[in-house]
Amino acid sequence: MKKQALSQRWDIWLTIVLFLIAIPLEYKEPFSFIEDQTLSFRQLLRMEYGPAEHTKLNDDIFIVNTDEQFFKEYKSFPLRRTDIAQITSTLRKLGAKVVAVDLLMDFPSSYGEDEPTAEVFKEVGNVLVVSQGRFNRNNEFTGLNYPTPVLQEVTKSGYTNISSSSSLVTMLSRLNLFPQIIHEKDGWPFAVQALAMFKGVEPSFDEKSRLLTIGDIKIQLDQFNSFYIDFPKLPHGARFLSEIRGLSAMEILQLDENEYEDYAALVKGKIVLVGDTSEVSHDWFDTPVGMVYGVEIIADTISTLMAQGPLMPASFTAEVISALLFMFVLVNVNLWLAHPGFRAILVASLFATFIGYTTWAYVHSGVIYSMSYVLLAGFLSYLVINLKEYLAERNQKAMIKDTFGHYLSPKVVEILVKDPSKLQLGGQQREMTAYFSDVAGFSSISEKLTPGELVQLLNEYLTEMCNIIADQEGTVDKFEGDAIIAFWGAPLDQPDHAIRACHASIDMQNLMVNMRKQLQEAGRPLLNVRMGINTGPMVVGNMGSKQRMDYTIMGDAVNLAARLEGANKFYSTYTMISEFTHNHVKDAIECRELDTVRVVGKKEPITIYEVLQRKGQMQSRDEDLMAAYHKALEIYKGRDFKAAMAAFEKALQIVENDGPSLTYLDRCKLYMESPPADDWDGVFNFTSKG
User: Which of 9, 197, 435, 568 has CB atoms 3.0–4.6 Å from 486's, for a disulfide?
Assistant: First the structure.
């Protein structure tokens, strides 16, 4: 092949451009999810072959954890705060220099445990408790979630927000220090605060030089005000750090005074971290060395700080030189070697040399070179440089490929490329939350409108409702006229699917209040929406025929949600949930018990609830109504229907058109005339679907 002048080698110039782009990208790290994968294998090699002093956890760190076995013996979840205080007190008596409690206590105890716990913390001293930083979607700091005030007053706290540097892959490899939080009270990361308390000093940070100082320890942070965590090597057969450098909290709770001396040898003069390593806590994260519990990441971070941050990014100058040297060799290999086989061997050797050197520097010297950006630029450059030859040699095959491509359906190809399994019928069973809604009296409303007006009204309504469902990351299954069917918990894995569904229903009902005002002002029909929500096992997936499939849900739990939507009619309510949903949301949503019923088609009774508002957002009048209503309901359950009538009438004096109170008033009258059987269990049987 005739050689072209360098000015005509657009592929070489494009290679230079690619490397000039890669150099600033190394500093900005926009693709950190790729770089994190290279850190993973380098860290594993460092743990195996790196300097001995950096491959083990510092001896001044110990862990006391609550694991699965602990909660099996404890027979309760979560750990009571008074027991946390007992563990802390015992550890301090054993000689622990700092007790750092990685258990969030930012809400007041429901059992009145904060005051006695605070008294113990104050008495033993040197207790660190965890806080959390709040950030918006732009990663801007908005505040700290401190421990409860009574606990905050007698302890220090530190935030544990260890975040991934990537928004695509959650891998925790660094501790981020947020300069804007430092000026807040206890505005230091948990690990930094723990080490400062251990040293008996206050940490400081020079934003200009990015130097973190903790007594005699000085850590140089990178351009993102973070430093890399140097994860220690675990002994053969050990999966978690807490297995080799920890104790179960049960041993501390049940410690006999005769055993103090033995246990003191384990914790005396050390930082003791108290944290949760049970699976139910979900407090574990992906790291370069695999899944690691949060308390163990804190231990590794403190150990890294004690070693003065042995992992350091290479200087920007060193990064530039290495990238330009790689580019120079790559360009010359492809300029002067015509044989594609020789070129491939030398290019592969170049890649291997670069990978080998950057890995060696990381493993033995703790110097971190960005690897993925240079490799990606080199790979793309190699493809570009060989593109013209490829086009010349593969022209005929490419033409054949293009010809056959005309016989393929673009839609089918797109689906197959993204995920061929999506074309298969069937689904999977998982716990989810189903949502059904329907406009009350829509048939009569539609009779008053022209077809055009009806479509416009329906479109306005459905658009607003679907926007709210989307805001809560729900999935709209289908529309059936004015009815909406939606679900949460798939395709995304949403542990809080029930709460999201209830939040959506609350937002919808709030929006409908404003929409009715606008409709009334415009002289248009008013819309009142009934909603039914149920949580339970359902089948979700692509279902239908080979010609047409829908991603939908089905199952008894779905049918129950539909029944609940219609059951609102019996109580003049608008949002009804089952006891199964209530079990998931009772701590986040204000609800009131409506009844225990058997819906049509079901033998087992269920308790149903009305969704009112987000927790703590009810108005005082509604709170008064709820108190009166629930008192009346208890009297009703006791079969004193005459007294119950009087109690429900008191509730109606607060809100005269309260639907459930009116329903029970009528039912009490019925039962006074025709009392239920002696074995009446309080269950009301629906005779219609609503």
Answer: 435
Contacts of 645 (CB under 8 A, 6+ apart): 665, 668, 669, 672
Task: Please choose, from the candidates 63, 121, 65, the residue with its C-alpha nearest in 3D space to the C-alpha of residue 88.
Answer: 121
Give the pLDDT score at 549: 61
Q: Please write down the HEC assignment for all residues of 631-688.
A: HHHHHHHCCCHHHHHHHHHHHHHHCCCCHHHHHHHHHHHHHHHCCCCCCCCCCEECCC
How would you class 463 by CB atoms within 10 Å of its CB: exposed for 0-12, middle for 13-18, buried for 19 or more? exposed
Secondary structure element (H or E) that encloses residue 354, with its range: helix 340-360
pTM, two decimals, is 0.55
User: Are 177 and 192 a contacting pair, CB within 8 Å?
Assistant: yes
pLDDT in tens, 590-645: 999 999 998 877 778 999 999 999 998 999 999 999 999 999 999 999 899 999 99
Nearest to 131 by CA among 117, 116, 118, 146: 146
Distance CA 207, CA 181 (A): 12
Cα angle: 203, vertex 209, 215; to 5 degrees: 25
Question: Can you tell me which residue has the tokens 């008192």?
Answer: 631
Q: Where are the alpha helices (DSSP H) in 409-477?
A: 410-418, 442-447, 451-471
Token pair of 157, please?
């706290």
Write the burial class of residue 292 (CB in 10 Å: 0-12 exposed, 13-18 middle, 19+ buried). buried
Render the burial of 168-202: b for 16+ CB within 10 Å, e for the rest: eeebbbbbbbbeebeebebbbbbbbbbbbbbbeee
